[in-house]
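ASSEMBLY PREDICTION REQUEST
Request ID: AP-0331
Submitted by: J.K., bench scientist
Number of chains: four
Total residues: 140
Priority: normal
Notes: Please return the full assembly, not individual chains.
Input sequences:
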Amino acid sequence: MGKNLRLKAARAAKDMSQKDLADAVGVTRQTINAIENGDYNPTINLCISICKVLGKTLNDLFWEDDQSGE
Amino acid sequence: MGKNLRLKAARAAKDMSQKDLADAVGVTRQTINAIENGDYNPTINLCISICKVLGKTLNDLFWEDDQSGE
DNA sequence: ATAAAATGTTAGATATAATTGACATATTAT
DNA sequence: ATAATATGTCAATTATATCTAACATTTTAT
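STATUS: Completed
Returned structure:
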């Protein structure tokens, strides 16, 4: 699995560290790190929580053929 | 958690049974049934597989405040 | 009416998401 | 230089997604 650079960018745009995001959604820093690095397959509820904190949708951060230049 | 009626409707629109969809994405019928009934929290990769089979996006089937008239 | 297919649900097992804790490296300060 | 913060990663544990297998109910046929 590849890295999730859209997630990394959305987090950077909010000036949050991995730990900040982890605390905001109620998981550990290692979990956020693993998701950004594509090391595993989070649950949809966690994805939804992350999206809400970062002001994005599922398609923005986790859908693939989404090359729309907004 | 509430039922996922959008998933149920999208599956019906393809005239697929729960077992048909389960076979198409490589899980069991019970897993599809549990997702439709809101009994748990699937992984994002499974959600993406389901969306692809049904010709929908993550926002279509799993995002919440999605009242956009496309 | 009955047979077949689809769905709902449950118990027990397995795979893996997520945790805790630790350590290393990199970055950004002072 | 060093102190602090952020990130990468790994081993061991816990929580839970998913499986297997079974049985009941509902729906759609014959």
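REVIEWER COMMENTS: Residues 5-62 of chain A form a domain with the 434 Repressor (Amino-terminal Domain) fold (CATH 1.10.260.40).
SIGN-OFF: pending second reviewer
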